[in-house]
Design goal:
Radius of gyration: 20 Å
Distance between the termini: 17 Å
Structural class: mainly alpha
Shape: elongated
Helix content: over 70%
């Protein structure tokens, strides 16, 4: 009876983890693809300013999406630790620390994302020269946010590598999910480092990251939500 109760408890916690994982994916996709990709024009500062001015509420919702993502990341950092600590406590602690470090950097970086909302408060009445300067500053601010995001991604990549090891060894999850998370970790690390030290590889690294991360994280999230843990 104790074994059955334990298994039910693990499955329940796994599904709760899957729910928060889904919040992370939804929040990240919404804020990244539906908001920033729509409003930010990397080569056109004035268009970026006009887009933000015309869609201020959408921009603020994007900030909220990122905030939900960060808060959910903190929660699943702890949940993953309790789900996987029996595999290898040392690796589980390291994985948790790296993920919490990622969350801390992302949380601190959100001020860079919100700063344009403060900068546009004085927009009415500016001269053309001042408006052009404001647009340039906002575009730079968004670039700073993106690079802060990439720095946090290095910690997340290391978390994925450690999670891959834990998941591969865990009796609660299929080995394939562990392997997929390992590959995703290398994909994230490749993309983050390429942006800083090998800009010519950015397009390639983004494609590699997109393919590996989407497959691994969606598969893992759905497994947690639907299956919970393996019945083995």
């Amino acid at each position: 009876m104790k074994t059955i109760a334990y298994n039910l408890s693990v499955k329940s916690w796994a599904r709760i983890t899957g729910f928060f994982y889904l919040l992370i994916i939804a929040g990240g996709l919404f804020s990244g693809m539906l908001v920033r990709e729509t409003l930010i024009e990397p080569l056109d500062a004035m268009a970026t300013l006009n887009n933000i001015m015309a869609n201020e509420h959408l921009f603020r919702l994007g900030f909220l999406g990122d905030l939900v993502m960060v808060l959910s990341d903190v929660v699943i950092s702890v949940l993953f630790y309790f789900l996987l600590k029996n595999v290898n406590k040392g690796i589980a602690v390291m994985a948790t620390v790296f993920r919490l470090m990622q969350s801390a950097i992302l949380g601190a970086n959100l001020i860079n994302l919100f700063k344009p909302m403060l900068m546009i408060q004085n927009y009415p009445g500016l001269s053309d020269t001042q408006t052009a300067s404001l647009a340039h500053e906002i575009l730079i601010q968004m670039q700073v946010f993106e690079y802060g995001y990439l720095i946090s991604g290095v910690f997340f990549a290391l978390n994925c590598l450690l999670m891959g090891i834990l998941l591969y060894k865990s009796v609660h999850f299929p080995n394939m999910i562990g392997l997929m998370m390992l590959v995703a970790g290398f994909g994230y690390l490749f993309n983050c480092l390429a942006n800083f030290i090998a800009p010519s590889l950015i397009e390639t690294s983004e494609m590699v990251m997109l393919v590996t991360a989407v497959v691994a994280e969606l598969t893992f999230c759905l497994y947690l939500l639907i299956k919970g843990v393996s019945s083995n």
